[in-house]
Amino acid sequence: MAEEVPNHGVILKRYVTRFPSEDDMEVVACTARLAVPAGSAAVVVKNLYVSCDPYMRTCMTKHEEPNYLPDFVPGEVLMSNGVSRVVTSGHPDFKAGDLLWGPTGWEEYTLITNTDIHFKINHPEMPLSYYTGMPGLTAYAGFFDVARPKKGECVFVSAASGAVGQIVGQLAKLTGCYVVGSAGSDEKVSLLKTKFGFDGAFNYKKEHDLNAALKRFFPDGIDIYFDNVGGAMLDAVLINMRMHGRIAACGHISQYNLEVPEGVHNLFSLVTKRVRMEGFMVLDYHSKYRMFEEEIVGYLKEGKICYVEDVVDGLEKAPAALIGLFTGRNVGKQLVNLLKTKFGFYEAFNYKKEKDLNATLKRYFPEGIDIYFENVGGAMLDAVLLNMRLRGRIPVCGMISQYNKEQTEGTRNLFCLIAKRLRMEGFIVMDHFGEYRQFEEEMVRYLKEGKINYVEDVADGLEKAPAALIALFTGANVGKKVVAVSRE
Ligand SMILES: NC(=O)c1ccc[n+]([C@@H]2O[C@H](COP(=O)([O-])OP(=O)(O)OC[C@H]3O[C@@H](n4cnc5c(N)ncnc54)[C@H](OP(=O)(O)O)[C@@H]3O)[C@@H](O)[C@H]2O)c1
After folding, report:
1. Using CA positions, which residue lies closest to atom 19 of ligand 1?
2. Fewest C-beta in 10 Å: which of 86, 292, 303, 446?
3. What is the pLDDT of residues 67-106, one digit of tens each?
4. How far apart are the C-alpha atoms of 32 and 11, rounded to whole Å?
5. CATH superfamily assigned to domain 4-121+308-337
């Protein structure tokens, strides 16, 4: 394995005092060492997803007094939770290939020296992006531990369509509560009612009088307020709380870009209504993570909870995605996908680095493969056969791994065709030339719409043609290999 590889990261250019802009961040090229320091328990990871979180804004400001999280440092990469694959490990519990979630850098490769709050992913059958960690646990801890709901209570959630809010609302419904959410667009309001099952929802940007809006939905008052925004909404909620109500203070996103926070005027309601308002930090709940995970994975599998994400592809889109949190551009949890780059594959692996192809395929397809587009044959085909699902299909396009062998490797697992009723069918493109015009129309449209990408690897000059052809068998080409004979 190469000791050093090219790396890209998003750095903070300067400290921010007001509303952040994309220009406060920059994508820079650098290199990453893949080795961990000798004798250390560090890991080097390849990042797959990084999370955009509102708290990151507070880390962009220089604090004279220590903040609850360390400030970012200009010139260094931003940090947040992410999902990563271990490349090299000195840690006894993590090995190369393992999937982890926890704090990581906004870059392709990160050396993580402190793995105290990193978790190995136990349910890779769930979308990996769900493991950017905090929002679900934040909702779970804040709702059950801080707000302590009872069946039949009235619950209000602000920033309700966001990463945390959407889960809080669904947990409230599962507990038998009446739940209403606020969000900043009609599209989000509709999502709350149709997708997440909120009993009611309103667009706070369209309400001139938040107090009146809350009275409309809670004529008898609010038992639980899950506060994601602070500011004017908190003030309006305070006068609508019921006796012995609880306010789980989760975040104050409406205040993060103000130099001086707005004053909240109705705190005396805490006294008159014996309301408990309690702040909490998800960091304090990491010990409960495994318990939370089992319960939530169960709900997700049973379809009792759903989760909406807003994923952008590529680190270069990360600054805009982060800023979008503060304008409400995101719908659901905002993530940056570092893997799904050019071709949009959900996952990918380097077959040369995998010792056991059967185990590799099981990792990516725990429930089996429906369609295998066969290009290589040999050991990969044998491993795939073991992992096909009942009635799966294998269009056999080519078997490049065998073309240079005097005697082909034998395929051993063909009995799977019978046991699993598989169809494996060879084809030659020449037999389909009759469909060319139809294919061309469709493909040109996809290419124009940017729905399909095509990568070519062009060698210039006929003298490079022999090497170009040989490259196909060593894997030196990236995409379609062509030789440019003459450029007009
Ligand atoms: N205590 C903890 O441990 C903890 C952990 C995670 C998150 N949090 C906090 O929880 C809150 C929600 O976080 P999240 O991850 O779920 O974020 P998110 O909802 O995914 O994204 C932020 C959303 O907040 C809303 N928003 C932005 N500016 C606003 C404003 N000025 N007034 C009202 N709403 C505004 C926007 O939606 P709209 O279109 O609806 O305006 C935006 O989409 C944040 O305050 C965050 O800091 C706390």
Report:
1. 162
2. 303
3. 888 999 999 999 999 999 999 999 999 998 898 999 999 9
4. 15
5. Medium-chain alcohol dehydrogenases, catalytic domain (3.90.180.10)
